[in-house]
Design goal:
By secondary structure, the chain is an alpha/beta fold. It has 11 helices and 14 strands. It has a single domain, classed as 3-Layer(aba) Sandwich (UDP-N-acetylmuramoyl-L-alanine:D-glutamate ligase), CATH 3.40.1190. 33% of the residues lie in helices and 20% in strands.
């Protein structure tokens, strides 16, 4: 696969360490739109869609975009089962260095089933005792040599589906080694994030609208979109004036607060096969842009381009995404790209 077009000496950051859940999932389409009953037996069929956890999605895209010159080290746990073995193999094939991913003999790989009604609504069934739940702060320590090797030149990602204390420890470790710190959290974790001051240890945080509403202490259903965005920015500024905040809203576009100015980028009009994973793809684009020292407008454009391509695949990791596909996608839709981004997309 072709990474973005750049010379290694152009990189502001030269490696990434990430901690988060590693797992997979499947999609099951139910027959009939009526809500599944407690004792009901319902027919349906599995769909040809693959689901992945946030760490895997973001780490994959960062690696594909930045290529061999940019090592990516995920930290996590999988079970000693077929799913864990397959995920490890897929990560290695993408070029991820899995030396800090261990196989736990006493737990299964994080796994979920997404059930879908014909009208597109649905829900998830996810195991709550997976190997990812057993990732502890001590599991970060083996990466000490990588932290030391890339002091002041590395990035970390703290992603959901591993315990919050582990992510807090990762961010503290990254701070001590002057790493660029990116993170995402689900809405139910925002109280912990705010109460424990995690925002002070983050440079970039990616959210959707529901998570942004929780971050500012509001209710998602009670606020207009602009109110949610502004309240989240204000909440972040109170704890960390330098925080860069990304808020995605699907087909309604995304907002990037760069610490001084708010940038809105409309979504790319594309036929959506699955919106799952689009926010993670967007965050991966912003991390790649930070490594390349792209200005906010170019960073937002790259993230939006990657998110737009991601939803054109039924899988939460688009298996063909690389620079060639970015070029083809841009040309097909006649997209207007900031001048600063164009050299990175060209051959």
């Amino acid at each position: 696969m072709k990474p973005l077009n750049y010379q290694p000496d152009q990189l502001r950051y030269r490696a990434m360490i990430g901690a988060g859940g590693i797992g997979g999932g499947s999609f099951f389409r139910l027959n009939g739109n009526h809500t599944l009953g407690r004792e009901e037996s319902r027919s349906g069929h599995f769909l040809d869609q693959r689901d992945y956890c946030k760490l895997h999605i973001i780490a994959h895209y960062v690696k594909i975009l930045l290529g061999e010159a940019f090592p990516v080290f995920p930290i996590g746990k999988v079970g000693q089962d077929d799913l864990g073995g397959r995920l490890l193999e897929e990560m290695q094939q993408a070029g991820l260095d899995t030396c800090f991913v261990t196989q736990d003999a006493n737990a299964s790989t994080l796994n979920s089933i997404c059930f879908l009604y014909p009208d597109g609504t649905g829900g998830n069934l996810t195991v709550d005792n997976s190997a990812s739940e057993r990732v502890e702060p001590a599991d970060i320590d083996p990466a000490q040599e990588v932290f030391a090797r890339y002091r002041g030149q590395g990035m970390v990602l703290a992603a959901p589906e591993v315990p919050l204390p582990t992510r807090k420890y990762l961010l503290e470790k990254a701070t001590s080694f002057a790493f660029y710190r990116a993170a995402s959290f689900v809405a139910s974790e925002m109280d912990y994030v705010l109460e424990n001051g995690l925002v002070k240890s983050i440079d970039l945080v990616g959210m959707n609208l529901e998570e942004a509403a929780a971050f500012s202490g509001g209710e998602f259903s009670d606020q207009p979109t602009e109110g949610i965005v502004n309240a989240a920015i204000q909440a972040g500024q109170r704890q960390n004036p330098d925080l860069v905040l990304s808020i995605t809203a699907g087909r309604n576009g995304s907002w990037l607060w760069d610490g001084r100015e708010l940038h809105f980028t409309p979504a790319i009009p594309v036929a959506v096969k699955s919106s799952a994973g689009a926010g993670d793809a967007h965050l991966a684009g912003l991390m790649a842009a930070a490594a390349l020292s792209l200005a906010p407008e170019a960073a937002a454009a790259l993230a939006t381009l990657i998110a737009g391509i991601s939803v054109s695949s039924p899988h939460t990791i688009h298996p063909q995404l690389d620079r060639t596909l970015l070029q083809d996608f841009r040309k097909k839709l006649a997209l207007d790209i900031p001048d600063a981004l164009q050299p990175f997309l060209e051959d």
